[in-house]
Amino acid sequence: MTDVVATVVATRSSAPRPVGSKLIIREDGSLEGSVSGGCIESDVVLAAREVRETGESRLVTYGITDDMAIGVGLPCGGEIDVFVEPLRQRDGDVALTVIAGDGVGELLHDPELEQSALRRGRSHVFQLADRTVFADVVADPPRLFVYGAIDTAEAVCAAAKLLGWRTIVADARPRFATAERLPSADEILVLWPDEALAQVAPDAATAIVVLTHDDKFDLPLVEGALQTDAFYVGWLGSRRNQERRRGLLREAGIAEEDLARISGPSGLDIGADSAAETAVSMLAEILAVRSGRSGGRLLDAKSRIHAEPVASGKK
Fold first, then answer.
1. pTM score of the predicted model
2. What is the pLDDT of residue 315?
3. How far apart are alpha carbons 264 and 234 in whole angstroms?
4. Which of 51, 188, 296, 302 is the most exposed place for a label (fewest CB within 10 A)?
């Protein structure tokens, strides 16, 4: 006998719970969590009983009818894929589980794939040869590290806070880097670029934005940022200035493949003008990069609005 966990691994159209939601079915029959807000839990419990008896994990698909959806506060129905498996101890922020194809239920250990999943920052499915893998990502909120305590810094921090991100602003100028000017920053550092990078230690869940417009700050900060695992490095400034800066970085020995990581001018082309609009533009690009999307109009997009679904299982 063992505990069983059911996890939402994909959704289509509306769904009561997001990807990554879990329902734990204990040996004594008690339940913890939810995968649908109540409309399919009883059937998931039956699937869990089979998994407990056979030891074999299962991928099941459920249709959420319009009536069910309205009952949990949705405007229309949809489908969800739920993976049911024995509950196991997990190590680290990412767990990779085969949910369709050869070796269903197998846990994969691949540092490169785990790092890629962590960069994306949310649970999702992906194809690995003829197998479908669910990357279960459980990590701290992403961090936004801004260098340059100008008005745009406060605007972009305020926008990031709405997403639940942790925000850090650094500047070597004490009169700029103050709590009064940056009320949305979770942390304010009065440090030079190398010191700030050393203290923040950007990782794969960190986006970096450089706003100072001053080579003595910008160049060492960007050069140092490119040596980290930050998933985004953005640089404010005109196209002409961006090319000039890239030339200076090339002279400093920065490789072209590293320069290609720089998003500069930073942001999406939405006609932003004010500090608040510029913040929206920049944060929108950061979100697109994190999700592996181009950031174009949904009207013109050929891919699904949300994460790609997995192949349907058998109920």
1. 0.73
2. 44
3. 6
4. 302
